[in-house]
Amino acid sequence: xxxxxxxxxxxxxxxxxxxxxxxxxxxxxxxxxxxxxxxxxxxxxxxxxxxxxxxxxxxxxxxxxxxxxxxxxxxxxxxxxxxxxxxxxxxxxxxxxxxxxxxxxxxxxxxxxxxxxxxxxxxxxxxxxxxxxxxxxxxxxxxxxxxxxxxxxxxxxxxxxxxxxxxxxxxxxxxxxxxxxxxxxxxxxxxxxxxxxxxxxxxxxxxxxxxxxxxxxxxxxxxxxxxxxxxxxxxxxxxxxxxxxxxxxxxxxxxxxxxxxxxxxxxxxxxxxxxxx
Length: 277
Fold this sequence. Notes:
With 277 residues, the protein is mostly helical. It has helices at 2-51, 60-68, 73-97, 102-131, 140-152, 157-180, 194-228, 237-245, 250-274. The protein has a domain at 139-277. 40% of the residues are buried. The model is unreliable at 1-8 and 131-136 (pLDDT under 50).
């Protein structure tokens, strides 16, 4: 009897420990959405600054670099690393063990990879800052150009670059549609009601649309790189913003996109609280 009771208690303790560990993991993972929100606020402010003619570099590495340059910047970056690793791992676990449809699981895997890449970038910046060796890797535009150049060196390289560009372009259209149809509400387990709920919906609609426009331009630039066999045409978000800036009414469009990125940042804070995990 005593032995059986002890075994039962041990099983309960183990189950409780696992539940607490899962809850802690979820909390840190939710923090990843909050950190993403901060990054999008920084990006939004930078993009608006570019639209107003003040300049700046509109990519996530630059935004992380700005955070790293603040007081206690290294600590902030390590918090970002932990949050992004937790969220990336959560998304990958959902892709492997989740019960969603195959398409949704592929999306989870893609998001997981992106968050882990952000964790790597934040960690690299934190280590570079602590050693005084600079920012390490190149800008988002340089990374896009290097990636395109690597693809073009492969057999049927231009076709591969075009496929990547069309994929990014499709992702941009998806973001716009997701915002317009408010499909992002499916990502929330229980959206807030009343004025707060309407505010979250408005932020999500504007934010997804702005991100969609930027992604669509990035995709178009990759397709242009494939058509011209010039990897230098491939650009990241910063290059997309510069492209929009040179179009008719460019400054107004860029400022609107910057406001949209900031709106997405605020929506991300709500997602940290209400996300379906």
